[in-house]
Amino acid sequence: MKLSKKVGLIIVSVVIVTALASLFSIYAGQASERGELQDRLSRTESLLPTLMKQKKDQQDQLADATSELDANKAEFPEVVESIEYGEDFFKIADDCNVDITRLNSSPPTGKNVGSIIYFVSSFVVVVEGDTDNILKFIDAIGTGIDYDLSWSFQLPWSVDVKSVDMEVNKSKATISLDIYGYEGA
């Protein structure tokens, strides 16, 4: 069976119109999507300068904070060591039934003895309490020995008691001492 030219032409025309309609529909969808993407790109590009300024500000803040942290780190180890020694002093004072009313320390200084590095910190400790308990406190610090074993030193250190000024009538003693610790202690 042979189709006439008119029918063939109609079929070809319908196929072409259908193809064109499909292409137009796809193009219109892509044009709409392209428009949305252009809008989003414009909004993003308008935010870029603000975000770049915020990034620079935050980098400046980070640099300032890092600089401040580095400056504080230089002082921190001395404070930590004094705090740790102070904790030991307060444990000993509690065990000896005396009150520490003042605790001053100097920054540790390094001293070489052969190949070993020692750190020396000077302390002034003022304690109040019964005279026997003050003497017990001085002995415990000087020897590092607790006969009741209720405390132990947190750090490996030894003490050189330089001077003791006792005011017996006030039940008070001012003790000057040096603490020797090993590097890394």
Notes on the protein architecture:
The protein has helices at 5-96, 131-143; strands at residues 99-105, 109-113, 116-128, 157-167, 172-182. By secondary structure, the protein is an alpha+beta fold. The protein has a domain at 76-182: Ribosomal protein S6/Translation elongation factor EF1B (Alpha-Beta Plaits), CATH 3.30.70.60. Strands 1, 2, 3, 4 and 5 form a five-stranded antiparallel sheet that branches. A hairpin with a 2-residue loop joins β2 and β3 (116-128). The longest helix is centred in the first third of the chain and has 92 residues, at 5-96.
Provide a quick synopsis of the model.
Residues 75-80 have low confidence and may be disordered. This protein has helices at residues 5-96, 131-143; strands at residues 99-105, 109-113, 116-128, 157-167, 172-182. By secondary structure, the chain is an alpha+beta fold.
CATH superfamily of the domain at 76-182: Ribosomal protein S6/Translation elongation factor EF1B
Low-confidence spans: pLDDT under 50, at least 5 residues?
A: 75-80
User: What is the CATH third-level topology name of the domain at 76-182?
Assistant: Alpha-Beta Plaits
Q: Largest sheet, described in full?
A: 5 strands, antiparallel
Number of helices: 2
Structural class: alpha+beta
Rough outline: rod-shaped
Termini separation: 107 Å
Number of DSSP strand runs: 5
Name the helicity range: 55-70%
The CATH architecture of the domain at 76-182 is: 2-Layer Sandwich
- The overall pLDDT, averaged over residues, is 80
User: Under the CATH scheme, which class of the domain at 76-182?
Assistant: Alpha Beta
Rg value: 42 Å
Strand content: 25-35%
Order of helices and strands: HEEEHEE
